[in-house]
Amino acid sequence: MPEVFDVLFLLALPGSGKSEVRNYLTHKDPVHFHMGPTAQLDDYPYVHLQLIVDQILGELGMPQAYHWADPDHGGNGPFIDARELGGLCELLNEDYFELVSGHAEHPVNAAARLLDRFDAASIRAGARPKFRTLPPGIRAALEARLEPEARKLFDDKAANVPDSLDGKTVVIEFARGGPAGSAFPLRGGYGYEASLSHISPEILRRAAILYIWVTPEESQRKNNARAKKGEQGSILFHRTPQVVMEREYGICDMHYLLETSDVPGTIRVESHGYVFHVPTEPFDNRTDLTSFLREPVEAWSESDIGRIHGSLSEAAGRLWQSYAKSR
Q: Which of 18, 68, 164, 191 can bridge 253 by disulfide, Cβ–Cβ 3.0-4.6 Å?
């Protein structure tokens, strides 16, 4: 059997370099990092679609479903209910099991199916469903306007489903944090402790975590810098508004979870009645090693590649040692 991670979480504050690292791994031989060919999952496409839903609902004269209205940022304020961050993990569970099954979903009405998935994920996360009680005319109008974006989501998901996961590594990416100045442990649905509790046990028992480590201040700087080019819907270039950075990503609980775990080199995750000690390794990106990866591959310099390759390979090697012992 190849010595590769079955599931690797790439976790960090926004702008920290998660997507850049993932971009690098797709262009380099992943075996150096104990990874097979990758199948990749990210919760950002769902966040993007929830923002679109809020925009459409506002134009239909309805309250926004997910985010506080923020006229300065086109409606993109913080989550009204932070438990929806756990709902995003419930959606990632579904996407993972679609990869495992090898059979992609092709709904006839993509928007209706997406709204139903959103409601079911909210309920599992302890939040209220948003769309079951919409007036029929509003629901129909929402579905009609959402259909092209929802269809693209399902098409993109289908294109990501391999014939088999044998020898492959599933990479799962998301960002979590909490309001600036919060005390640990974070409450109310914020932070990695809350979100990881919604990840399926079937995933957690096969998983390791590579944490891209930057400070909240550096996260905000890089978040602003990455939006200077590209489109808002881009994984590499989307910008998180400042009000969201302060409310949802002003502090990170990953180091707290590492320091308080009863098994060194892991974080303790309680999920669905089980306790997991998930091997976790910080990749120190406080001195920026990753921003150059937003450029076209031909623009990457050998010196930049050498710095990230060595540091990333060392972090992945330490993580693999912990992971192999836990198997």
A: 191
Q: What is the mean pLDDT of the chain?
A: 91
Q: Which residues pair with 276 in a beta bridge?
A: 269
* pLDDT beyond 50 at 159: yes
Nearest to 28 by CA among 316, 234, 233, 320: 316
3-state class percentages of the chain: helix first, strand second, coil last, to nearest 5: 50, 15, 40
Please tell me the distance from the alpha carbon of residue 191 to that of residue 180, in angstroms, as a whole number.
Answer: 12
| Contact of 76 with 241, CB cutoff 8 Å | yes
Residue 191 φ/ψ region, left for φ over 0, alpha for ψ in the -120 to 50 degree band, beta for the rest? left
Q: Where are the domains of the chain?
A: 7-326
CB 244 within 8 A of CB 235: no
Measured distance CA(52)–CA(55) in Å, rounded: 5
Q: How far apart are CA 172 and CA 160, in angstroms?
A: 13
298's CB contacts (< 8 A; 6+ apart) are none
Instruction: State pLDDT tens for residues 197-231.
Output: 999 999 999 999 999 998 888 877 777 766 555 44
